[in-house]
């Protein structure tokens, strides 16, 4: 028995909630550009800056991040060309954000 409500394997379930960047915590949208290795990824942020993103230990083994994925990142306060990756969106969530015009990409 599955813990999923109303969705089946391969089916597209309806998105109920999507995490948005918390601006008060300096979180912004970013797109993964290039895998650099050693838990680092080059990301292009929505403010137009290309940064080196570090996958936090909390999500390192739980999520697989690929090039082209939509992410939420937090730029470092003391080194603006680096950031921490906080969250990765799945395809259905990205489609939901596009339908609601919350993405400018």
Automatic annotation (TrEMBL):
Keywords: Initiation factor, Protein biosynthesis. The keyword Protein biosynthesis applies. PROSITE patterns: IF1A, S1_IF1_TYPE. One of its GO terms (molecular function) is translation initiation factor activity. Seems to be required for maximal rate of protein biosynthesis. Enhances ribosome dissociation into subunits and stabilizes the binding of the initiator Met-tRNA(I) to 40 S ribosomal subunits. PANTHER family: EIF-1A. Belongs to the eIF-1A family. This is Translation initiation factor 1A. It comes from Methanoculleus bourgensis. The gene is eif1A.
